[in-house]
Specification:
19 strands; 5-stranded mixed barrel; elongated; BirA Bifunctional Protein, domain 2; 2 domains; 9-stranded mixed beta sheet; about 30% helix; OB fold (Dihydrolipoamide Acetyltransferase, E2P); 15 helices
Length: about 475
């Protein structure tokens, strides 16, 4: 068939006819429903089956003397996985199950490949992600996670739009991929005969729009970083980046906390607590707050002091003490120390504030401490969820920091991007005081849907090529 008129979903019918009692029917009201045949149980001249659509599944009932001999013979040829359209009326069986009594049916598509009986039991566990179309058919709970993701992102947009922000789209192909420390993917643009890079952040273009006078902008976009794959990292992922003129990092922290608490409430149907990896995490406001250097000292029992950490040689010594390989730069060393010492202790939502300037090349220095910037990162379940700061809007300071990064690149740190001098030029036209934030959508969705791997919240995660 080219088309089938669907009049209701399975969930709609189950809700509408929930009042029926065993043995009662609603024969006066007929409905067209379509879906995939999951099971079929034939007993002589009658047959029960489960029909599944995007909203769930429902039992259907077929009788030979009602369909006719030819149609019932066609019914007998249907297999698990076939897509069918049925018309019928609702009744509640003597066993108490709401059921659609089928009066006619049509075959919409034939499944020539058999569905697996025990998908999770396959030896090739990667196959679940490689063949998502099968995974979602036989594991509707996996599909439900991605449906929840879609609804939560839609709610995120509503929340942000309600605060006066404009959603924009910035280029994915760039001459210089800046705005973060990461190794980019490189490609070639035939039209320009130029080597191009896939973006590692949307930051610099969004801040150009702040210079241009748009004042409140955000983008939910795909980001590409040529890095490893594990339960919390994927080379292709989704990030929200948002910038607000005339805000500082304190304003952004308030906004960030309100957004996350709101999404947690949506995910829990009005609550504030979520189960994650055997722990109960509360998203009730206010979230905990902890200074970066205080956290390093606390979780090292006072061994990692400000003086040691802010000295490149001292940070290198700490790496040796931890048994961590040497880093190509001071900033890289601090990141590795923090990952090992502090992150495992950050289970509840915690804002870590006041980062060293050496690892924050785009953030504004604190007025009373030039070694520290107005920046925070939000951690939960030992994962970084968001990163925000008061933006550096001094072109001379930005030029000096980009110049310092050139030396880091020369020292072998391939994650340090090339300087984007046009961005410095944009700052020379004047950027208002601004706060910005980046939120890892995939990790946030892991938390809100209770998933242990980033791949479980992605429709088609990057996989090794099938041999």
């Amino acid at each position: 068939m080219r088309r089938f008129e669907v009049e209701a979903t399975t969930a709609e019918l189950l809700e509408r006819y929930g009042f029926l009692v065993p043995g009662q029917d609603a024969a006066a009201e007929g409905w067209n429903v379509a879906g995939r045949l999951l099971t079929k149980r034939t007993m002589g001249k009658t047959s029960f089956a489960d029909l599944a659509d995007r909203t769930g599944k429902m039992q259907i009932y077929v009788r030979k003397d009602e369909l006719g001999e030819a149609a019932f013979a066609d019914w007998a040829q249907l297999d698990r996985g076939d897509l069918i359209g049925v018309r019928g009326y609702m009744f509640r069986s003597k066993m108490g199950e709401l059921t659609l009594h089928v009066t006619s049916f049509s075959v919409l598509a034939k499944a020539v490949m058999p569905l697996p009986d025990k998908w999770h039991g396959l030896q090739d566990v990667e196959k679940r992600y490689r063949q998502r179309y099968v995974d979602f058919i036989v594991n509707p709970e996996a599909r439900d996670v991605l449906i929840a993701r879609s609804r939560l992102i839609a709610e995120m947009r509503r929340f942000i739009d309600g605060h006066g922000f404009y959603e924009v789209e910035t280029p994915t192909l760039l001459h210089i991929a800046g705005g973060a420390a990461a190794q980019p993917f490189v490609t070639h643009c035939n039209a320009l005969d130029r080597i191009m890079q896939l973006r590692i952040a949307t930051e610099l273009n969004l801040k150009r729009l702040i210079v241009a006078g748009m004042e409140r902008v955000y983008e939910i976009g795909r980001i590409f970083r040529n890095e490893g794959i594990d339960t919390t990292h994927c080379p292709e992922f989704t990030m929200l980046e948002l910038y607000a003129a005339y805000w500082d990092v304190s304003d952004m922290m308030e906004f960030n906390e309100a957004l996350i608490a709101h999404l947690a409430s949506i995910a829990t149907d009005g609550g504030s607590e979520l189960a994650y990896e055997g722990a109960t995490i509360s998203f009730a406001r206010p979230f905990a707050r902890l200074e970066y250097l205080d956290a390093m000292a606390r979780f090292s029992e006072g061994a990692y002091t400000r003086e040691r950490l802010l000295d490149a040689g001292g940070a290198a010594e700490i790496l040796q003490e931890l048994g961590v390989p040497a880093s190509p730069s001071h900033g890289h060393a601090l990141d590795k120390i923090f990952e090992r010492v502090v992150e495992p202790n950050l289970t509840a939502p915690t804002f870590v504030t006041g980062y060293p300037v050496v690892i924050s090349p785009l953030a504004k220095r604190r007025a009373d401490d030039p070694d520290i910037v107005d920046r925070y990162e939000l951690f939960c379940a030992s994962m970084e969820i968001s990163n925000a700061f008061t933006e550096l809007n001094d072109p001379d300071d930005q030029r000096a920091r980009f110049t310092a990064q050139i030396a880091e690149r020369a020292g072998g740190n391939e994650e340090i991007p090339e300087p984007d001098w046009d961005y410095v030029r944009a700052l020379e036209y004047g950027m208002p005081p601004t706060a910005g934030i980046g939120i890892g959508i995939d990790r946030l969705m892991m938390l809100l849907t209770g998933q242990r791997s980033i791949r479980d919240v992605m429709l088609f995660p990057l996989q090794r090529q099938h041999g």
